[in-house]
Design a protein that fits this description.
The complex is a heterodimer of chains A (about 190) and B (about 80).
Chain A: H1 16-37, E1 43-48, H2 53-68, E2 72-77, H3 82-85, H4 107-110, H5 115-129, H6 135-144, E3 148-152, H7 153-158, E4 171-174, H8 176-184, E5 188-191
Parallel strand pairs in A: 1-2, 1-5, 2-3, 3-4
Chain B: E1 7-13, H1 20-30, E2 37-42, H2 47-56, E3 61-68, E4 73-79
Parallel strand pairs in B: 1-2
Antiparallel strand pairs in B: 2-4, 3-4
Classes of the chains: A alpha/beta (about 190), B alpha+beta (about 80).
């Protein structure tokens, strides 16, 4: 027979009421932590640096799809990536025939005048035949789905672009710090 | 083929390719009420894996069934919340 369950008069032993209070405090703390950490909202940041037709697709396809998952998505466009957001240039993105081993021609030929235009026309024809969305459609779709398409302010000025050149809904006036802030909170970060 | 599901809405994305089937499915689901079922008709073979992955990673939807009819792929998605 044990007397352990009896109040022993030991001043250090907490009472049942104190233990209950402690339990309630811990439960409240846990709920706060879960609310802060455990929210299901995933975040993705993509940095888009290239303005060729082939490199314009992956960021926009991933961004619009992630938005369909309910993710919070930022695509930060810098350097030639700005051309994707440029209303005029985005409709005339080119494919480079040189330095692309998948092209069915050797580099020496690909470097001849007119070859980039030919490669671009071939790709545009394929895009059309396959019913693949155009860059313009993917931009509208991404903006409609709540994707934040950002244009790096420093490169806007470097490339002599005007903020009005971009699609309506594009975020301007942002820099590396803004991108980093979102990246630090993101589950997925990609450089394209 | 008639379905065993009580389909509320049918989304036709035949001819469209990635990412359209998933993105359009999401938009169509947003317009439904809880308990309603969306039928998605696609010709993109990638939609089998993509819609399955989207449904698994998205709260408030349940993929009831996918049917491969050879030339078309049918997906049945219920809005659960």
């Amino acid at each position: 027979m044990s007397s352990d369950t009896q109040p022993s008069g030991d001043a250090a032993a907490p009472t049942e009421a104190e233990l209950r209070q402690r339990l309630e405090d811990l439960e409240a703390q846990l709920a706060d932590l879960e609310a802060a950490v455990g929210d299901d909202q995933k975040q993705m940041t993509i940095v888009a640096t290239k303005g060729t037709l082939d490199m314009a697709y992956p960021p926009l396809i991933l961004a619009s799809t992630a938005a369909a998952f309910g993710w919070d998505v930022v695509v930060f466009h810098t350097f030639w990536g700005l051309d994707i957001l440029h209303e005029e240039k985005s409709k005339n993105l080119k494919l480079s025939a040189v330095g692309n081993p998948s092209m069915p021609m050797p580099n020496a030929l690909a470097a001849l005048p007119g070859m980039d235009a030919m490669a671009t026309r071939m790709m545009e024809k394929k895009i059309d035949e396959n019913n693949t969305a155009t860059i313009e459609e993917l931009i509208e779709l991404s903006l409609d789905s709540g994707v934040d398409l950002q244009a790096c302010q420093m490169t806007i000025e470097l490339m002599d672009y005007d903020e009005d050149d971009f699609y309506d809904g594009v975020t301007t006036g942002v820099g590396a710090a803004t991108a980093l802030q979102h990246m630090a909170d993101s589950d997925v970060q990609l450089l394209v | 083929m008639s379905t065993k599901f009580d389909v509320t809405e049918t989304l036709d994305v035949q001819g469209a390719s990635c990412p359209m089937p998933v993105v359009k499915t999401k938009q169509a689901i947003d317009d439904l009420e809880e308990g309603e079922v969306l039928e998605v008709v696609a010709t993109d073979s990638g939609s089998m894996s993509d819609i399955e992955g989207w449904a698994a990673g998205t709260d408030g939807v349940e993929l009831l069934e996918q049917v491969d009819e050879g030339d078309v792929y049918k997906h049945y998605v219920e809005k659960t919340a």
